Amino acid sequence: MAEEQRGDAIETFQAAGETFPPDAATVAAANAQAEIYARAAADPVAFWAAEARERLTWRKPFTKTLEWELPFARWFDDGELNVAENCVDRHVAAGRGEKVAFHWIGEPGDRRTITYAELLVEVQRTANALKGLGVTRGDRVAIYMPMVPEVAIAMLACARIGAAHSVVFSGFPASALADRINDAEAKVLITADGGYRKGSFFELKPIADEAMKSSPSITGSIVYRRRQPGTPGETAMQQGRDHWWQDLVPQQSTDCPAEAMPAEQLLFLLYTSGTTAKPKGIMHTSAGYLLGAALTHHAVFDIKPDDVYWCAADVGWITGHTYIVYGPLANGATQVMYEGTPDTPSWDRWWSIIEELKVNILYCAPTAIRAFMRQGEEHPRKHDLSSLRLLGSVGEPINPEAWLWYRSVIGGGRTPIVDTWWQTETGSIAISPLPGVTTTKPGSATFAMPGIAADVVDASGKSVPLGGGGFLTLTQPWPSMLRGIWGDPARFKETYWSRFPGSYFAGDGARRDEEGYFWLLGRVDDVMNVSAHRISTIEVESALVDHHNVAEAAVVGKNDPLTGQAIFAFVILKKGVEATDEFAHELRGHVAKQIGAIARPKFLLFVPDLPKTRSGKIMRRLLRDIAEGRALGDVTTLADGGVVDTIRSNTGAAEE
Length: 656
Ligand code: PRX
Description:
- By secondary structure, this protein is α/β, with parallel strands linked by helices.
- 34% of the residues lie in helices and 23% in strands.
- The protein folds into two domains: 24-341 and 420-451, Rossmann fold (3-Layer(aba) Sandwich), CATH 3.40.50; 526-653, ANL, C-terminal domain (GMP Synthetase, Chain A, domain 3), CATH 3.30.300.
- The strands form eight sheets. An eight-stranded mixed beta sheet has the order 12-11-8-6-7-14-15-23, sandwiched between helices. The protein has a seven-stranded mixed beta sheet with strand order 5-4-17-16-18-19-20, sandwiched between helices. It has a four-stranded antiparallel beta sheet with strand order 21-22-24-25.
- It is built from 21 helices and 30 strands.
- The structure holds adenosine-5'-monophosphate-propyl ester.
- The site of adenosine-5'-monophosphate-propyl ester has 19 residues, from α12, β20, β24 and β25.
């Protein structure tokens, strides 16, 4: 069983590794104390009702907390509020208008500071601009923008007038943008001329134009001008349809009262890939989603009034929605927003920002952490990172080596690490340590959040006792859960609710150790089966990157006539290490030594890079195609198409 294999590896880590209890100062000052678990477990629905009353500002109080007709949940259904008012107006009304909402840094080095009072003005003007383009409550607005503060302003402007946004990541091509616009039948597209990335300006408007050609529902567009003087290029505008943000928005009235919205008003759609080619429009509604965002941001990041918080995700993904826009703004936090990539102009860009703005909390993905590891410690060492108090990880399992590096090199050996498991569908963090409560173990996301019920079940849906592994399920509804897939209730039921009737199936494998800690094993489809032993790809990857000469690794199962599947490893070496057959042999031995001979990769290929989505996830599906020598599947989400060709052109000598 995969679970047993991974379990062996986990026990190896634990035997070798330390655990990290919270220090006394963190415990004493923590927003969330141990009592929260008991309070939530005693009566989850009452817990959520109390949190909803405490954290959100209501126009009309709710009297019904939950209506649950599996799989359709309605939370706080008869209540009314406005999400933008919760994220902006109430902080200004409470006298915190001068507090900074965003310290924004453009990749070329330009800066802006935006207070909550300024945010309120801009959100109202933008909402009025949308109204002027005919957007009304219930409409959908597509947003396709680089990382500028206007992306948050645009989202909040939609929320203010009851329109739902659909943010499409700015790295997607025209066809993907058009598909999403058309599926949602969006009326207006908010975009930009482009943005700065890796030292140059990338054009967005031509892509938006291409998409709009085949998006008949679009009647108008707003185009934010990002191009700086001195950056060459012209942006074509279609008269009658396209409006420069800088012309349209400033002339609007600064008065656009927030309208009271039903709690279950659609707040946004966010498209995510599923097992078929058609992306799923995940639906999130207003009050429940905002509550999940606000509570988790408060409890997991332990945010304090004077903190400077930085979530380094792109707003085009759920992490950016929940932990750049809605959670932090609902909590009135001061944030950093950075436009560009971590290597521009050099690999210490993040660390210099942290030093300069005295960032207290950093939240990023393990892929980024491993990239930093690969570049070497000299970059963070150049900067004073002592302001950091807490570090977060999200998006994929974090291998213990990266966890420990993150804590020691970035966190100075002081900071708690919160490894947060969640999904586009869960809306907010579902499994994570609480920094003042949980003793952490490197590589484990630890426990379900208060008010969330997670289980590990076997193929028949039976709960697996502690010490065992299986499929991760969530067994009770929670406020920030997805409400459906846009236009496809049947797919919603089928994807999430049919495999284990009565529970939400996350699509992930997980194991709980004897102490009940959750260890995520990756997507279930990433689990290999070798000689009837199931082995998680992450387990082998962890063993590979554990070798001091390995920077990154990805592992897939390849069909094998003898053993069912064989392990195929793609390995990126650290700078200066030579890719020789001898070293490949040594590395296989290293894996065998770490987790047993069964996990020894049959195929091992040194590669210069790995195919990743633009959000940084390794596309194992493509690696499986390469390993099998078959035609590639859908590559639209691939960040760099050349990577695959480079890898394919030398798959020859991999076998041992
Ligand atoms: O497999 C899990 C992995 O990312 C998936 C969700 O992807 P997405 O909807 O794009 O959201 C990513 C940001 C929340 C999950 O099914 N995942 C996410 N966080 C973790 C994780 N796997 C292990 N550990 C995590 N902390």
